[in-house]
Amino acid sequence: MRSLGQNQTEAELQDMINEVDADGNGTIDFPEFLNLMARKMKDTDSEEELKEAFRVFDKDQSGFISAAELRHVMTNLGEKLTDEEVDEMIREADVNGDGQINYDEFVKL
């Protein structure tokens, strides 16, 4: 979250986890993470911050978040994911079924 311009205390982070942990497993999966970031970005009410968050994931600036880019960012955030987990995250967010996440799909999460 710090790489996305968000700086919370440990207590604030735990509150956010509790707020968006839809399945109650004590961790945040990718759709829950995107939901959390969307809420935080809406709180700041800035389209530019949403675009910046998307750019963090879209390393090659293609306008799409690929599985490789998602894996890279999540690894940098400390998440070790299998190929299957990354593919599942893409499937959950990929509304149009092209195997990538575009900006509109990112914003809707």
Assign a percent range to the helix content.
55-70%
What is the residue-averaged pLDDT?
83
Q: Strand portion, in percent?
A: under 5%
Distance between the first and last residues' Cα: 16 Å
Shape: globular
Number of helices, where a helix is a run of at least 4 consecutive DSSP H or I residues: 6
| Biggest sheet statistics | 2 strands, antiparallel
Low-confidence stretches: none
Question: Which sequence of SSEs, written as H and E, runs from N to C?
Answer: HHHEHHEH
State Rg: 13 Å
How would you characterize this protein structure?
This protein has 109 residues and is mainly alpha-helical. Helix content is 59%, strand content 4%. It contains six helices and two strands; from the N terminus they run αααβααβα. It has helices spanning 10-20, 30-44, 47-57, 67-76, 83-93, 103-108, and strands at residues 64-65, 101-102. The protein has a two-stranded antiparallel ribbon. α2 packs antiparallel against α3 (47-57). The model has no long low-confidence stretch (mean pLDDT 83). It comes from Brassica carinata (Ethiopian mustard). Residues 1-11 have a biased composition (Polar residues). Belongs to the calmodulin family.
